[in-house]
Structures are given as C-alpha cells and as structure tokens.
Amino acid sequence: MEGIIIREMQHDDLPRVCVIERGSHTAPWSNKSFEYEIENKDAFLRVAVLDGKVAGYICIRTIPDLIDLLNLAVSPEFRRMGIAGMLLNDALHGLRHLKPDTDITLEVRESNTAAITLYEKYGFSIKGKRRNYYKTPDEDAIIMDLVLREYQNRV
Ligand SMILES: CC(C)(COP(=O)(O)OP(=O)(O)OC[C@H]1O[C@@H](n2cnc3c(N)ncnc32)[C@H](O)[C@@H]1OP(=O)(O)O)[C@@H](O)C(=O)NCCC(=O)NCCS
Question: Does some domain include residue 100?
Fold first, then answer.
C-alpha cells in the first residue's frame, strides 16, 4: 500500500498507540505495558505510519526458543487496507533472517474471525486451544503457529 512507513515504536507514539489499543481490545494493554516492551531488548515493536499518523502496531517477544506474537492492532478507520498484513509481513520477514529455526506462536480469541483469517492468510495454522484463557469476556484461545523458515513474503 502506498504511503505507509513501518518503523520501530518509540515512546512518543504511545498516546496514539494507547487510543488504538483501547478501541481494539476489551482488556487493553496499559501505557506502562508498552513502555516496558519498548525498553525490553527481546521485544520487536513496529508501528505503521500513514500521513504522519500511527495507524497500527505489532508487538512480538523473542525468547531463546520461541517467538510470541503478543499484540497486533489497526485503528478502525484504517482497517481492510492491508496494514496488518504489512506489519505482519515486515515482522515475519525480519525475524525469519534473525531466527530461522524458531517457531512463532500466538493466541487469539476463538470469536476473532478477522484475526484468525489474517493469520491463516500469512501462513499460520491452528495448533490447539487454551480453555478460558481470556477474561472480560471469558473465552477460549486458539493457539496458532508458523515455522519461520517456511515463511514466504506475502507483500
Ligand atoms: C485483525 C486486525 C489487526 C486486521 O487489521 P487490518 O489492517 O484490517 O487487516 P488487513 O487489511 O491487513 O487484512 C488482511 C487480511 O486479513 C483478513 N481479514 C482482515 N480483517 C478481516 C475481517 N474483518 N473479516 C474477515 N477477514 C479479515 C482478510 O483475509 C484480509 O485480506 P483481504 O482484505 O484481502 O480479504 C484488525 O481488525 C484489528 O485491529 N482488530 C482488533 C484487534 C485484534 O483483534 N487484533 C488481533 C488479535 S491480537
């Protein structure tokens, strides 16, 4: 998509990131959670910027034998424009070179068809379920994963 820049998340992005976060999740992360991840050397955080405005972000934690996709959201007015796909592609492409022998895993609400469809489009497959993983509202999580070495650029 034209005009989108993907870059590292910075502290100055947090007011806008937190607005998107609150509009995207029923149990949103706090400002402090994002601050912690920005300072965490094992975190991979990117924002997508359109016309100078943060439109979405992705948060991934890399630990020695596992990569965990913790958070991904796009502001409602910018959805279905391919921004989450760009963030995901950028992350998977970058991490594939960094840790080719590692799996990337994530949990997603069972009812979140948009996200499950997105992740399947980018090569994730369903591995199982965690019962009552989420609160507010209570819901099972679907566990998905992808072998990074097998990832092919989608954009
Ligand atoms: C899920 C979410 C990140 C998708 O962001 P997006 O920028 O709109 O996604 P994209 O435009 O990149 O969509 C890529 C593909 O994902 C799938 N997809 C995205 N939104 C969808 C929807 N509402 N319904 C069905 N499929 C959807 C489609 O396959 C889409 O490709 P297409 O548009 O060519 O059909 C966004 O809806 C969001 O922020 N939701 C709230 C937060 C959330 O649920 N995060 C994920 C769990 S942590």
Answer: yes
- Number of domains into which the chain is organized: 1
CA distance 126 to 142: 7
Whether residue 57 is contained in a domain is answered as yes
From 107, 110, 122, 139, active-site residue: 107
- Residue ranges around ligand 1 (CB below 6 Å): 24-25, 71-74, 79-85, 108, 112-115, 117-118, 121
Give per-residue pLDDT as tens, 105-144. Answer: 999 999 999 999 999 999 999 999 999 999 999 999 999 9
Residue 115: which domain range?
Answer: 4-150
Q: pTM (2 decimals)?
A: 0.96
Nearest protein Cα to ligand 1, atom 21: 114
Q: Give the residue carrying structure tokens 């100078």.
A: 52
| CATH at 19 | 3.40.630.30
Does 37 participate in catalysis according to the annotation? no
> Is 137 within a domain?
yes
Query: Exposed (0-12), middle (13-18) or buried (19+): which is 16, by Cβ within 10 Å?
Result: middle
Q: Taking each helix axis from N to C terminus, what angle separates 14-22 and 31-39, rounded to the nearest 10 degrees?
A: 130
Q: Which of 57, 119, 134, 151 is catalytic?
A: 119
> Does 155 map to a domain?
no
